[in-house]
Amino acid sequence: MKNRSRALALAVLITTAATGCAAGQSQPGNTSSAKSVTESAPQIVKSGFSTKGGNINVLMSSDFQTLDPGNSNYVQTANVGQLYYRTLTMAKETAGQPPKVVPDLATDTGKVSKDGLSWTYTLKEGIKFEDGRPITSADIKYGVERTFAQDVYTQAPQELNAALDDGGYKGPYKDPSAVLKAVETPDARTVVFHLKKPFAEFPALASRSNTAPVPKDKDTKLDYTNHPVSSGPYMVQSYSRGKSLKLVRNPHWDPATDPNRTALPDTFSFSLSTSQSTISQQLLANSDPNAITLDSNGAMQTSDSAKLADPQVKDRVASGLLGCNDVLSLNTEKLKDPDVRKAIALALDRQSILVQYGGRRFGELEQSPLNSKMTGYADPGLEIDPAGKPKLEEAKKLLEGKDYPKSLTYGYANNRDSYKNTGTVVQQNLKALGIDVQLVPIPAPNYYSVLASEQLPDMGRSGWCGGADPSSVRTSADPILGPNNDGTSYGFSNTSRYFDPQVSKAMYELRNTAGTSEELGKKWAEEFNKALKTYPIIPLIRSHTNSVVGSNIRNAQVGYFFGGIDLSIVGVEH
Predict the structure, then answer these.
(1) Has residue 167 been placed in a domain?
(2) Distance between the two ends of the chain, CA-based, in angstroms?
(3) Average confidence (pLDDT) per 10 residues, the chain, 574 residues
(4) 54, 572 contact by CB (below 8 A)
(5) In a domain, 511, yes or no
């Protein structure tokens, strides 16, 4: 999960938040003596609700990048996706805690062979698509096969694919006669994955959207986003790109097969073009008691922070610390000199950037995009100030005698003022180094597509949530800075396009190295930190979300991975 979104314990990129007060200053409801965000307990709005029925209005500032589970690496899509598709396993959210991998379409989290090279899954009985057809192992395999067609699905998650002994498979379209031997379907209810090397966290990879079933005869390639065939409790009734989405109950979903989703509302109605300032004001004023938002940090604006402590609002605030970390990605194809990148990192006033996120109510400064509780984690020892203060003189010294770009572009998603304001901080900081920064707005739905294209800006904010297994260094370190599936270039989620002949080769070889999670975690952390010390990315903020909901909303919790209201359990009084 890219701003990241973004892993259900996935690896994803997400869009992050903004609002608020200066770091370290007293804030309404968050005095200087209050607990840090890491110590604050998550707040769930009116839990314990179990009544079915009603409609929830989901207010969003922009459309989803895609609804196709095979072309998505984003947390917002994963959040809404759990309503209309299921996967072999599922990363089940608990507020304030890393997700736990549980069975979903499969009867368990997988059975591993003695040599660790094969994982077998048995599908539950009674699982069906929205048209009543049984979901079979062939549908699971075809869902995986599609994600290998990276010429078609440029945002397809690749962590699972990288682990498979795929034999150079390139998807089902270029050569329909090609066979993905790494996935076998000996019968209609059995799926067997064959790996290059043992992968202890494979059950987490099986929760990725790669394993969402897709009926081959319904595959319309890029048009599949308009109506993905449902295997979950809801299905698409109507979808107008950039305007609205309506989900209604899937009559063939059997709750007996799905203990993970309560599926309480009858319908979800998405508005996909409401400005964030309008969303925040509507939610604060409770003008629509049935409303929520999936926008990052509840679409709160800079001026809204104090309002969260208002007696009419505070009981409607779902909040929690996320497994999501924001970074400033530097295009290493443009900024090739590690000393220049380090100078940029040292010149940043990260305290001021935290202000654009809303101060400590909405996040905390980080020294690594990895979380310290991950197995094998090691402090990277970066020279950026933990308190966020710039080290301008050290930065200038690094640039002495260097030939470096005097003009750079900073790309930002155009759906939030704070994204632009963060760029303004960067612009001001780098002016002191003699670097002119041009701010380039990018339409929010296309933001990560642009980062993956030839229009990649020289710098841009991106985020990372969890990793396929949020307790594992490997499943975050590899996607963030690791190489592609064959080790010849930068990887899919590697927005800085970092590739080093030695470090990237070592990462590639680690993918094919056996060992315990702790042993491999330490090795991954060592190589990742080598890369991080060349500053292809600059750690910024670990997010803490506050999301206001309407007064009729129940069971509203902020997902550790999703960074927004968990749609799988939310309900509405009606």
Answers:
(1) yes
(2) 34
(3) 36 31 28 40 93 98 92 86 97 84 97 96 98 98 96 87 91 95 98 92 92 98 97 98 97 98 98 93 97 89 83 94 85 96 98 87 88 87 96 97 95 82 95 96 83 89 70 84 90 91 95 82 95 97 90 93 90 97
(4) yes
(5) no
Q: How far apart are CA 60 and CA 271, in angstroms?
A: 6
- The residues facing 326 across adjacent strands are 463, 541
Q: Pick from 331, 383, 378, 328: which is nearest to 537 by CA?
A: 328
Residue 436 makes CB contacts below 8 A (sequence gap 6+) with: 406, 407, 408, 430
Please indicate, yes or no, if residue 186 is contained in any of the structural domains: yes
Rounded CA separation 516/519 (Å)? 5
* CATH number where 93 lies: 3.40.190.10
Measured between alpha carbons, how far is 51 from 501 in angstroms, rounded to an integer?
Answer: 57
Q: Regarding beta strands 459-465 and 317-330, do their DSSP bridges make them parallel or antiparallel, or are they unpaired?
A: antiparallel
Is residue 198 included in any domain, yes or no? Answer: yes
Angstrom CA distances, 253 to 139, 207, 388, stand at: 16, 19, 50
- Concatenated DSSP letters of 410-439: EEEETT-HHHHHHHHHHHHHHHTTT-EEEE
Report the pLDDT value the prediction gives residue 466, as an integer from 0 to 100: 63
Range of the domain at 96: 89-224
| Residue found under tokens 């608990």 | 94
- Rounded Cα gap, residues 150 and 5, in angstroms: 19
Supply 15's token pair: 């869009």
Give the per-residue pLDDT at 37.
41
Please state the φ and ψ torsions of residue 456, each to the nearest 5 degrees: -50, 125
Residue 37 Cα distances to 30, 110, 300, 367, angstroms = 10, 36, 17, 16
What are the phi and psi torsion angles at 17 (to 5°)?
Answer: -100, 180
Note if the pTM is more than 0.70.
Answer: yes
Distance CA 266, CA 55 (A): 6
* 558/567 Cα distance (integer angstroms): 10
Tokens for 109, please give them. Answer: 């989290």
Encoded tokens for 81: 């996706």
Give the whole-angstrom CA distance, residue 59 versus residue 298.
10
Which pLDDT value is given to residue 17? Answer: 30
> In total, how many domains does the chain have?
1
| Confidence at residue 341, expressed as pLDDT on a 0 to 100 scale | 98
Q: List, in sequence order, the alpha helices (H) in 324-407.
A: 338-347, 350-356, 392-399
User: Which pLDDT score is estimated for 301?
Assistant: 78
